[in-house]
Design brief:
It is built from two helices and 22 strands. The chain has 211 residues and is mainly beta. It has two domains: 91 residues, Immunoglobulins (Immunoglobulin-like, Sandwich); 90 residues, Immunoglobulins (Immunoglobulin-like), CATH 2.60.40.10. The strands form six sheets. Strands 2, 5, 6, 9, 10 and 11 form a six-stranded mixed sheet that branches. Strands 13, 16, 17, 20, 21 and 22 form a six-stranded mixed sheet that branches. Strands 3-8-7 form a three-stranded antiparallel sheet, with no helix packed on it.
């Protein structure tokens, strides 16, 4: 007499298709395993490489919940899947993408004064001190409008020192701030108010003056 297996291999799934977490921490990947009969084996894979249950870097790689400790972007970011087997066959989940964001300090921005005073026709320099251990992108804003790097009126709009030339009161007076962005995030400075005073009268040269 022949007996035919009528059951199904395990059905495996993840609650989402992507997990995003920070570098340096731990993460738990949970796979839902559905089977009418007990499963005999559960395995986890990164790409096509089976993950060992070493109890150090990986914990639970023979269970539905895989713990990965001390995440590193270069080593751990990628796609994962789990597989399970019963007497009816072997099932495979879809891929789960693990995305790891670097973590670290955002730039620190300081400015010695909340106001700078200049006169019409002069130039003004706004300087921020920006501290960052890694490469930083810098942008300047007047009120909420970003200052164009190609605008000839401004020099250094991608640096901590912004030079504004040929100051005009109605056009240039107002609040300025800068933003600094590195790999870990973005920091916005406090506003600095640029006050523009009227142009000083030119002193007389004496030519043609009478006593």
């Amino acid at each position: 007499m022949l007996f035919f297996l009528t059951g199904k291999p395990p059905q495996l799934s993840f609650p989402s298709t992507k997990i995003t977490t920070g570098e340096g921490g731990n993460v738990i990947l949970r796979c839902t395993v559905e089977s009418d009969i007990p499963t005999t084996e559960i395995s986890w894979y990164k790409g096509n490489k089976e993950i060992p249950n070493d109890g150090l870097k990986y914990i639970g790689s023979n269970t539905p919940s895989l713990v990965i400790v001390e995440l590193k972007k270069d080593d751990d970011q990628g796609t994962y899947h789990c597989e399970a087997e019963n007497i009816n066959g072997r099932g495979r989940s879809a891929d789960l993408a693990l995305e790891i964001s670097p973590t670290g300090p955002t730039p620190d921005i300081t400015y010695p004064s909340a106001k700078v005073t200049t006169r019409e026709g002069d130039n003004a320099v706004l300087r921020f001190a920006i501290s960052s251990d890694i490469t930083t992108d810098i942008s300047w804003y007047k009120e909420d409008t970003r200052i164009d790097h190609d605008d000839m009126k401004y020099t250094g709009s991608d640096s901590p020192s912004l030079v504004i030339t040929d100051i005009i009161k109605f056009a240039d007076e107002g609040n300025y701030h800068c933003e600094a962005k590195n790999l870990y995030g973005k920091t916005q400075s406090q506003d600095v108010f640029l006050q523009v005073l009227p142009r000083e009268g030119r002193p007389r040269t004496g030519r043609g003056d009478t006593d």
